[in-house]
Structure formats: structure tokens, C-alpha cells
Amino acid sequence: MRLRHIGQSGLAIYLLSAAQAWAGGLMLYEIGTPDSGLAAAGWAARAQDPATVATNPAGMTRLDGDQVMAGAQLLYADMEFSPNTNTTVSGSDGGNPVGWFPGASAFYVHSLAPDWKLGLGMYGNFGLVMDNNDNWVGRYNIQDATILGMTLTPALAYQVNDQLSLGVGLNAMYGVFEYEVAVHNALDAIGDGQLDIGDSDWGYGANLGVLYEIQPGTRLGLDYTSSIDLELADTPDFTNLGPLLDAVLPRAVGELGLDMSVPQTVMASVYHELDGRWALLGNVGWQDWSEFGKVGVEVNSSTSATVDRSYQDTWHAAIGAQHRYSDDWLLSFGVAYDSSMVDDADRTLDTPVGATWRFSIGGQHTLQGP
Length: 370
Hints:
The protein contains four helices and 18 strands. It is mainly β.
């Protein structure tokens, strides 16, 4: 096992500046790996460490021996809601509903044979967590919301020849959904009630990758992840309802079912070494958020409908560079743009996403063995 890669990950430093932490939708590129210092540039072509299990499983063929990498991160998002004259509900602006949120990942690559690699990855790159103040003006639309996906991915790669490698992985995602909203007890003239609903489910998809080395130091990568369907169902829990609403709401609502699809994605990347010190990296990508916006809703296992939230597909572009400052230090830089999955007129309080710019600087220090 090459302990050098454990040292690299443990001492990597990343600085990330972005308007929002999410991509064009709810999918993170920041999963506690060196890609954070590049704004994800070279995502499917870099193949320099075990994180390639997730970004392009074909890249495992470039790693020597058995390698392991673990990463942790702490991200901060600052989001503000500004009430205006059209706001009819009294209350506060909700504060910052996101704030600090942690992340972690772990990857392992094992050499089965000179041309075959086996990998395993664990990471979370999908979701959103919001926690608004209890008395904010949008509490009858949303108070707290959580939608998270944690992925376990076993992967296999085969080196066809000196230039071409192929990879395949199974994405097993554990999805968690929780939603809380205030209920207006207007008929009973008392304080707000509360509706809570939540569930979890396993969903499965595929990760397919191709890596092609045009010449030493120049390679192209293509990675495709299929959609993952999550089927969620729960009976809402009502608390603090007034007598009139308590007699009506729980019986009228019953069990609710939600079906959603984590979007399929395509990422094409390039890695090119200019010399022994500098390398350029780039991406173009696509994410199928229009399908995610079509949510299947079922009430009491008898009435069903598809709600189209007018989401649209997003595209991604990134460019970055790596500089080998010394034998021990590798510096990285990157900038990326993701389009918005929703127009301003269709944006809702529960999914306040938009176009995103990322500006990143990173540094990796290699621990030298005895």
C-alpha cells in the first residue's frame, strides 16, 4: 500500500469561493478530494489518486499497486432572503438557512492483475440542507428541509492497451428526505402548528468511464453516471394543531409518496502537461435536472400525479492548472461555471439554487517516507 497518498490527502489545503455551494442543481463537486483545489477541472481525466473511482473508474489503471485515500471538508454557504412589500406574512428574514456543513469521502484501489483494477468509494455529492428560523415569513412554505444522498460505489477497470482504459462502477445511493413546514392555525386563533414528513430509500445506478492517452502527459476522459430513482413515502406527523384543523387535516392527507430521480450526468475532461512543472486541465459537462424536476406524487396509494417544477438541464465548464512547485508541493488553481437549473420566475423557497461560479486554490504536500 502506498502511504504517500494518505499523506497527500491529509495535508491538502483547499480554498473555495462561490456564490452557492451547489452545482447548477444540488450536486457537489466538492467531496473532500484534490479536485476541490481545481474547481473540478480535469474531473474525468486527472486520474492521479484513488478518487478517480468516483470521477472516472477507468482512471484506476494509472495507479500503481494498492492505494487508499480519505478526505474531509467543511463548507460554508451564506444565503439570504429579503422580504418586500409583496410579503403578506409577518416574521423575520429566516437568517442563514445553510451555514456550515461537513463532508467526507474514502477511496481504495486494489490491483487484481497488471491490467485489472478493483476500487471502492464512499462519498456524498448530492443534496441540500436548510434550517430557517421558526418565525420567518416563509414558514408556511418551508421551515426545515433535508435531501441527501450518500453513495457507495464498487468499481472495476481494465487497461485495453497503452492508450485506452475502460471502467464501470455501481452507484448505490442511500437517499434521505425530511421536510418541515408550519401550519397556520387561523381558524383557531392560536400559534402555528407543524407538519413533519420524512423517509429514506436505496437507489441504484451505473458509472461508466473511458480514459484515452493521446500521448504521454496528454489524456482525455469521459464519464457517464446514470440516473438513480428514489421512492419515498411517509404519513405526515401533525403537532400543535387547533381543534378544527386537527379534526380535518390528518384524515384528509393520509400517506404521501414522492418519487424522484437523481439526474444522469456526462463529463468530458482533458489533462495536458506543458512541461515537467505545469499542466492544464479542463471540463465540459451536462446534468439532466429537467427529469429531476418531474416529481411523482401519490396520496393514500390511490391518487397519483406528476408535478413538473419547470426545471431545466444544466451545463458545466471549467479550466484549471497544476504547478509542481517542488518535489513535495503541488499547487492547483481553477475556475468553473454551472448554469442554473431553474429560471428566476420558477425558483421556489425549498430549492433556492442558481447559476454558480467557483474560484479555487489548492495545495498538496507529499509526505516522504524513510
